[in-house]
Write a structure and sequence with these properties.
mainly alpha; 2 helices
């Protein structure tokens, strides 16, 4: 049984480190907003059927 507890402990450590990393990213990283300009050729806009 000690190997099962060791395995579960290692899985809990890995899950905790992933959770902690995600929490740190959400807390400390702010996304930068910027304007996006997409140029569309006039041929695509003025198509005649």
């Amino acid at each position: 049984m000690p190997t099962l507890f060791r395995f579960l402990f290692i899985c809990a450590l890995i899950a905790g480190s992933i959770y902690g990393t995600m929490l740190a990213l959400v807390t400390f990283v702010d996304p930068v907003e910027r304007d996006v300009t997409i140029r569309i050729p006039s041929e695509r806009i003025n198509e005649t059927p």
